[in-house]
Design a protein that fits this description.
Elements (H helix, E strand, L loop, with lengths): L6 H19 L1 H10 L6 H30 L5 H27 L14 H4 L19 H16 L4 H17 L5 H33 L1
Helix pairs in contact: 1-8, 3-4, 3-7, 4-6, 4-8, 6-7, 6-8
């Protein structure tokens, strides 16, 4: 993970290019296509978009409670330390996406709360810079940030289950786009943010573990 320090930089640049291209040439076209084909009538998409993340959020909260009691009785295992890294990555990712949402203030694809202006309802498209709140909060996607923070960290911590972590990201992103809860570029931004948080959280954990091993020799 530490061999190529420039990899994250190129990853970010590539992501920004994809976001810009998607904003101008893909986002609106995909939403109108999905609206025309009534994609929201396909109920599994809603499960993919909402329920998977909701279940994982509940599990993360419960694990924090469990981890606290393990700290109290001084019985934290190596597995516990790995899992808390992933939980912390999720929390960091969600905090950062909230900051970015308030900065970008993007219109949603469709109207969800408080009659928010949207592409589908009002042909509203673009950004309202530094507008805090849920009315303008489509970019980046919080659910995508969550699932990538979680799955990327778990990808490195538990590589034998990489098929599962990849599957979770695919299902959630398909659900979010298919239900047009988010634009494609929102999802790309959330994936970039979540991936970086997951990657660096694990990298920090492994660096500390390596230092401790060296000290114990």
């Amino acid at each position: 993970m530490r061999k190529n320090r420039l990899a994250p930089f190129f990853f970010i640049i590539a992501g920004i290019i994809l976001i810009v291209l998607s904003y101008f040439y893909i986002d609106r076209q995909v939403v109108w296509f999905l609206v025309a084909h009534h994609s929201r009538n396909f109920s599994p998409l809603k499960i993919f978009a909402n329920d998977i993340v909701s279940i994982l959020i509940a599990l993360v909260f419960l694990y924090y409670v469990y981890y606290f009691f393990k700290l109290v009785i001084n019985n934290v295992s190596a597995l516990d330390k790995k899992l808390i890294v992933s939980c912390n990555a999720v929390v960091i990712g969600l905090f950062l996406k909230n900051v970015l949402k308030d900065i970008f203030g993007r219109y949603w694809p469709a109207t969800f709360v408080c009659n928010n202006p949207s592409l589908v309802s009002n042909h509203a498209y673009g950004f309202n810079w530094f507008k805090a709140g849920t009315t303008y909060a489509s970019f980046p996607s919080g659910h995508t940030t969550f699932i990538f923070s979680f799955s990327v960290s778990m990808w490195f911590l538990f590589p034998k289950l990489r098929w599962l972590w990849a599957l979770l990201t695919i299902l959630v992103t398909l659900g979010l786009i298919g239900m047009y809860f988010h634009f494609v570029s929102d999802v790309i931004a959330g994936a970039i943010l979540g991936s970086l948080v997951g990657f660096y959280s694990v990298n920090n954990y492994k660096s500390k573990a390596y230092i401790q091993q060296e000290k114990s020799k």
